[in-house]
Amino acid sequence: MSKVGLKLGSLSLDVPFFEASLSGYSDYNMRMFARRFGCAFALADVMLDKSVARAEILAKACFQPGDDEHPVGAQLLGKTPATMAKAAKALVAAGYDVIDINCACPAPKVLRRRRGGALLDDPDAAIEVVKAVRDVVARPLLMKLRIGMDHSTRAEDNFWEIVTRALEQGVDALVIHGRTVAERYRGKADWEMLAAVKRRFPDATIIGSGDIFDAQASIELLQRTGLDGFVVARGAIGNPWIFRDLRCLWEGRPVPAPPDLAEQRAILLEHLDRIVEGHPEHRAVGYFRKFLVFYARRHPKRRHMLGALMKAKTRAELEAGIDEWYGDGATSGGREAQPADADRPASA
Length: 348
What we know:
The chain has two domains: 6-250, Aldolase class I (TIM Barrel, Alpha-Beta Barrel), CATH 3.20.20.70; 261-326. Helix content is 43%, strand content 13%. The protein is built from 14 helices and eleven strands. The chain has helices at 28-36, 49-52, 55-58, 81-94, 108-112, 123-136, 153-168, 191-200, 215-225, 241-250, 261-278, 281-295, 302-309, 315-326; strands at 6-8, 11-13, 17-19, 42-43, 47-48, 72-77, 98-103, 141-146, 173-177, 206-209, 229-232. The strands form two sheets. Strands 3, 4, 5, 6, 7, 8, 9, 10 and 11 form a nine-stranded parallel beta sheet that branches. The protein has a two-stranded antiparallel ribbon with strand order 1-2. Strand 1 and strand 2 (11-13) form a beta hairpin. The radius of gyration is 20 Å and the shape is globular. The two termini are 30 Å apart.
């Protein structure tokens, strides 16, 4: 299989995939696990422009990139060109290697404020943001968008106008989710539409997004559509092993067996330990639960295990539960993580 990776402006990756920004999930720990298992690049959690434009906010540890995780990107959410430019400049100064403009988020609270996916309904506003950020950022600039607000003719025209003008403004890559804003995460992502973008702009870097859950199917999808790469979003939550499998496939190496319960247990306990280090215990336990739901998809007795572990209120109770359900006496087994509508985060 080809060993050609992915170019994001001046940044070259040795594989054609990376970890997307996921609202509420893409913290340092998730990015660290992705990198450990073979992900060459990851985007941090989406950041609101007016927040990170303030030095005292950006100085907080949760907004800072880790010294050991370069290259790393920052995704910005906002609608005011000047504020977006100020925030982007501050993020570069903080050490981020790539800036990603969010014109895709379908969350209702984001749309009500005319941010994220709402910009797809106003090409002029979207391009003014791109121009403002491009003027102050010399590093790679990405733009995340969806294939339109909905499936109307007007929305499709707006989509093509934004794609065309964004590339003219010097965006280094477009990351396109194959659903409309109105669809959110319903139905299947339309990768044929993404392939059409690549055919119309063969020299542009077009990166697909949507329904990346299975490593083999994702590599085949990339080859069939002719896109330059893809991002792993929901498929990476509680499943850093997907990057190991993707890298093995891309490099022509055998894919290892799915992680057994002992390996899953080790990652779960390490993830919990890392979260507890950065939060008060009661908050850490609550925060860890949303990752646990996704890790649990590999467990052969998922419902029973979750029913027990979700009741844990302390670190000690969680650790004891993990030992019980993933320890030597538990039923061994592993399977590929699969999507579940009820567990989907409000990401782009």
